[in-house]
């Protein structure tokens, strides 16, 4: 027992005690223990029997179903999916999950957050965190080969960190890794070991390494993944035509093995076809494709009862954010922002926009699925109070504003519902709803908009991406509202270094209050997501971030 204690982070023992006392759940303990480097298997044993087992290096990848018997698995076949195919150049600049879904079949990540929202080592064999979580040691697996034959080493990892931390590259990883002042904080210990020296403690390092722009590229990468598709993944990129289709072929010398002892993947081929949403639904219904990316609620309605199809779902931190730019009038006045938030009848909006398939929000960018979420009463729809606030702000006769958003998901229904709900308060909302490109070309510039944000596994992850300033005091790249609050930032940095989930939740309570009381966003609901596929495809799941984890999917046909 003494030896085991020396080999795990000491904070795990405190959390185990909290588990025994019923202060945290078994799931919360496993998330915490794996965050600090314990394997999922060891953490599960610790949660069950009350004493941490010897840590072990887990196999890469996250299981999506009970592992099939070797005899049951069949190899071969093609999986076809409808998904918009956007321009791809530097993975560090990815702004879309769709881009990453193609590239992640060819390249891989140091860690992987599975459908269960637990982060595991992937290209890493393991990691270790110091007691103050300011020093993280990353241990690479040995013998992993890129598809050009080169072995993955620490030099490749350092190259990727140099890209993420280079402001000229323009990666969102720069703000996520703000605790690294530069490459001087990234140390090569040996060919398979990297040590991160954080300027400020942060518990989210393993999760950050699975942020979708954190795809590991070869050290020779020159900036265009389509021209240089070198990765450690299970497929090779045979064709990529932006806006048309992508073809990926099985690689025969991939480093991970299936249950039959042979290299993964089980499928021979993946084909993505670029289709708009309505065309994608029709293609699934006609059998031209097997699945579609990011089904809308209306698509779920159309496909969920289709014969031969299986619906996999997941609760998430995916949401549509009602956001107001605080650097322009009238949204610079918090009374106006508060008034619009009060115009959300959240239950009705969820029903009208998303068929009730989700959780209600509280105008703070932290979701019930997050381990540190602080539950609060759902704000009431109060147009009368909103009207009073508008009058106090100098708009006794009401206020005309334009709400900009896009039309590829449920935003039009949400926007129309808000327009009608806000009218009694004196808001005259003109809707500016465009094709996705028409919104994304200006999403950080519109004074009032609705922006879709994807899932992150920790409540502390999206906040530094969207609600803080950089070291020069300027809003970070994805801070679309320009809202920066000194107290909020101080508390966020405190939360990022707080290991104990209950203590972190206390800080999150304050962070949520600040966003609700003087923040720049409204969040009516958090969405459930679906992966709807033919039942002949096995070992399929719905990932909260809608990532395509396809290496272990197989076709029973």
Please tell me about this protein's structure:
- This protein is of the alpha+beta class.
- Among the domains are: 48 residues, no CATH class; 106 residues, Dipeptide-binding Protein, domain 1; 213 residues, Dipeptide-binding Protein, Domain 3 (Dipeptide-binding Protein, domain 3).
- 29% of the residues lie in helices and 20% in strands.
- The strands form 6 sheets. It has a 5-stranded mixed sheet, with helices on one face. Strands 12, 13, 16, 17 and 18 form a 5-stranded antiparallel sheet that branches.
- Strand 4 and strand 5 form a beta hairpin.
- The relative contact order is 0.15.
- The N terminus is likely disordered.
SSE blueprint and pairings:
Elements: H1 2-6, H2 10-20, H3 26-35, H4 40-49, E1 78-82, H5 97-103, E2 111-113, E3 119-121, E4 124-129, E5 135-140, H6 154-164, H7 173-176, E6 186-190, E7 193-197, H8 205-208, E8 235-241, E9 245-250, E10 269-273, H9 277-286, E11 291-292, H10 297-303, E12 309-324, H11 334-341, H12 346-354, E13 358-360, H13 383-392, E14 399-406, H14 411-422, E15 427-434, H15 436-440, E16 448-453, H16 459-466, H17 486-496, H18 501-518, E17 521-522, E18 525-534, E19 537-538, E20 554-555
Parallel strand pairs: 1-10, 1-11, 14-15
Antiparallel strand pairs: 2-3, 4-5, 5-7, 6-7, 8-9, 9-10, 12-16, 12-17, 12-18, 13-18, 19-20
Helix pairs in contact: 2-3, 3-4, 11-13, 12-14, 17-18
């Amino acid at each position: 027992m003494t030896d085991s204690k020396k080999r795990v982070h000491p904070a795990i023992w405190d959390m185990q005690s909290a588990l025994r006392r019923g202060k945290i759940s078994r799931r919360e303990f496993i998330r915490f223990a794996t965050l600090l480097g314990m394997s999922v298997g060891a953490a599960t044993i610790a949660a069950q029997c009350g004493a941490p087992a010897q840590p072990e290096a887990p196999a890469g990848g996250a299981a999506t179903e009970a592992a099939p018997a070797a005899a049951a698995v069949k190899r071969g076949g093609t999986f076809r999916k409808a998904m918009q195919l956007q321009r791809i150049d530097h993975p560090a600049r990815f702004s879309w999950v769709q881009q990453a879904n193609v590239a992640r079949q060819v390249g891989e990540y140091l860690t992987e957050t599975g459908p269960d929202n637990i982060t595991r080592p992937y290209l890493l064999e393991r990691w270790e965190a110091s007691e103050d979580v300011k020093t993280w040691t990353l241990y690479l697996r040995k013998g992993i080969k890129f598809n050009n034959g080169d072995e993955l080493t620490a030099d490749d990892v350092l190259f990727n960190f140099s890209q993420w931390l280079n402001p000229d590259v323009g990666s969102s990883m720069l703000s996520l890794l703000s605790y690294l002042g530069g490459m001087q904080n990234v140390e090569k210990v040996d060919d398979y070991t990297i040590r991160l020296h954080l300027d400020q403690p942060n518990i989210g390092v393993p999760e950050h390494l699975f942020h979708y722009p954190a795809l590991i590229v070869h050290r020779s990468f020159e900036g265009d993944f389509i021209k240089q598709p070198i990765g450690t993944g299970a497929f090779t990129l045979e064709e990529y035509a932006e806006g048309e289709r992508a073809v990926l072929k099985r690689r025969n010398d991939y480093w991970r093995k299936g249950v039959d002892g042979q290299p993964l993947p089980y499928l021979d081929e993946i084909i993505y076809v670029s289709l708009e949403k309505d065309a994608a639904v029709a293609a699934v219904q006609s059998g031209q494709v097997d699945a579609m990316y990011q089904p809308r609620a209306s698509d779920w309605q159309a496909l969920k009862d289709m014969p031969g199809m299986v619906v996999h779902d997941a609760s998430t931190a995916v949401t549509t954010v009602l956001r107001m730019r605080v650097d322009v009038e009238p949204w610079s006045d918090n009374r106006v922002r508060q008034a619009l938030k009060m115009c959300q009848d959240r239950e009705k909006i969820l029903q009208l926009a998303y068929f009730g398939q989700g959780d209600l929000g509280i105008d703070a960018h932290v979701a019930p699925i997050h381990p540190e979420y602080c539950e609060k009463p759902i704000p009431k729809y109060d147009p009368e109070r909103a009207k009073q606030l508008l009058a106090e702000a100098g708009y006794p006769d009401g206020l005309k504003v334009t709400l900009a958003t896009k039309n590829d998901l449920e935003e039009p229904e949400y926007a129309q519902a808000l327009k009608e709900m806000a009218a009694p308060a004196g808001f005259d909302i003109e809707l500016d709803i465009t094709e996705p490109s028409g919104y994304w070309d200006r999403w950080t510039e519109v004074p009032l908009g609705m922006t879709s944000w994807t899932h992150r596994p920790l409540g502390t992850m999206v906040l530094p991406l969207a609600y803080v300033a950089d070291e020069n005091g300027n809003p970070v790249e994805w801070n679309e509202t320009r809202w920066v609050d000194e107290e909020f930032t101080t508390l966020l940095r405190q939360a990022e270094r707080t290991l104990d989930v209950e203590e972190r939740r206390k800080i999150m309570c304050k962070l949520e209050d600040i966003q609700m009381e003087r923040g720049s966003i409204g969040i009516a609901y958090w969405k459930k997501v679906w992966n709807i596929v033919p039942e002949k495809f096995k070992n399929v799941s719905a990932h909260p971030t809608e990532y395509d984890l396809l290496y272990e999917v197989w076709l029973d046909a």
